[in-house]
Amino acid sequence: MALAPNAAYAADEQRWSALMVSAQAGDEADYRCLLGELSEVVTRYLSSRIGFHHYLDDCVQETLIAVHQARHTYDSNRKFRPWLFAIVRHKAIDALRKQKSQQSAIDNHPELEQHDAGAEQLENSILSGRLINSLSAPYREAITLTKFVGLSTSEAAAQLSISESALKVRIHRAITQLRRMMEADTL
User: Fold this and answer.
1) pTM of the shown model
2) Fold (CATH) for 115-187
3) What's the chain's Rg over C-alpha atoms?
4) What is the pLDDT of residues 123-169, one digit of tens each?
């Protein structure tokens, strides 16, 4: 007998919250299970909203990367779904904007269709988290909360228990460090 939609929703909420708490404590099996379930849910959610476009898989992967990078921000005293879908919405918007701007750039500059391997390697470094993970913890948290999770500066500052201006300084310094690392990677 299948669970009613509200019961299934509540069961998912409890299971995902428990799996995330376990993953935060270092349980890799629970974390793999959580990411597997979230992958299916995020794929269904995004495909119902943006359709099965060629960039759907990329958007799902970027969302899971953002969940991974922001997992330490999940508070078990709060509901899991709003935390998750805030990330999903922001990554979907980012993917749609990126797709639109890339298509616009290609339409306006056909010579940009040529593939630049160095740019792809740099983008892969950013998406894999290599550059983000090389930042110090305060800078990494500031960037993750504002740029990946999509919190406002006031929300992120409250989450980190610092002033909004201190958060803005961290973001600025993190971006400066990322820019330097990216320039060093391209040399």
Assistant:
1) 0.51
2) Arc Repressor Mutant, subunit A (1.10.10)
3) 18
4) 454 444 567 778 888 888 888 778 777 778 888 888 889 999 999 99
CA 133/CA 141 separation, integer angstroms? 10
Distances 87 to 35, 143, 151 between C-alpha atoms, Å: 14, 14, 9
Compute the distance between CA of residue 165 and CA of residue 103 in angstroms, rounded to an integer: 36
Q: What are phi and psi of 39, to 5 degrees?
A: -60, -45
The pLDDT tens digits of the residues spanning 7-43 come to: 777 788 899 999 999 999 999 999 999 999 999 998 8
- List every span in the chain annotated with CATH 1.10.10.10: 115-187
Identify whether the C-beta of residue 84 lies closer than 8 Å to the C-beta of residue 12.
no
Task: Assign a CATH topology to domain 7-113.
Answer: Rna Polymerase Sigma Factor; Chain: A (1.10.1740)
